[in-house]
Structures are given as structure tokens and as C-alpha cells.
Write a sequence for this structure.
């Protein structure tokens, strides 16, 4: 089992940057693929990015490619999401999630979730 705690959200202007971090408890962090999801009011939750257990495979939704970077540090039990060139449509609550085995963009495959952190991009 793993517990996840996100940090780093906040208010930023259009074009700005934020770095989200997710700290995981437990000794088996490297056995989990990790994902960052977001949900805006009235919209479905979507996978922003995901990373494999060893960090060598990543996934990004089309709308963030070239702007967001997901990374992980298995020694520190953390997974980060660097967000650059932020747009108003990036405004959402961002969640960190973990699943066993292979990386996926399907939120129903993720077993463990953080509490979320708000990201607001003002124009």
C-alpha cells in the first residue's frame, strides 16, 4: 500500500510555471507506475502524464506535450510534474496516483490517490 501527498499548486499567470511534487510513503515506490491527473469543474478527470516504474517510459496527453514534464526519483519516493507555459485551460485540481505494474492513462486502473492540489492559471 502507498500513501500519496501532493504539493506545489497555486496561482500563476498565463505563461508561468509551476512544479508539482508528490511524496509517497512505503518501501515499494519503485514497483508502482505513477500518474498525474487533473479535473476541472464540470469536466471529467484526465491523465496529464504518467511514468513507468523505472522512469524510462512516459505518457502525456496531447494538450500538454512540450509544456509538461513528468519525472520520478525512486530513491526519494517522489514524482514531479514540471508545468511550463501554463494556460487558463490548465486550471484544475491535480492529483497524483499510483498503480501496480505498467504505465497507463486510464484512471480506473489506479489504486492509490492523493488528496489533490489546486492549480489556477489567471489571464
Amino acid at each position: 500500500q502507498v500513501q500519496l501527498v501532493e504539493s506545489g499548486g497555486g496561482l500563476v499567470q498565463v505563461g508561468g510555471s509551476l512544479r508539482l511534487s508528490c511524496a509517497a510513503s512505503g518501501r515499494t515506490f519503485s514497483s508502482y507506475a505513477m500518474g498525474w491527473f487533473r479535473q476541472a469543474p464540470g469536466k471529467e478527470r484526465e491523465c496529464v502524464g504518467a511514468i513507468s516504474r523505472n522512469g524510462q517510459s512516459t505518457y502525456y496527453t496531447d494538450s500538454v506535450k512540450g509544456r509538461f514534464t513528468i519525472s520520478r526519483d525512486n530513491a526519494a519516493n517522489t514524482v514531479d510534474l514540471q508545468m511550463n507555459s501554463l494556460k487558463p485551460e490548465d486550471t484544475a485540481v491535480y492529483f497524483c496516483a499510483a498503480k501496480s505494474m505498467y504505465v497507463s492513462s486510464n484512471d480506473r486502473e489506479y489504486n492509490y490517490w492523493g488528496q489533490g492540489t489546486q492549480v489556477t492559471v489567471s489571464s
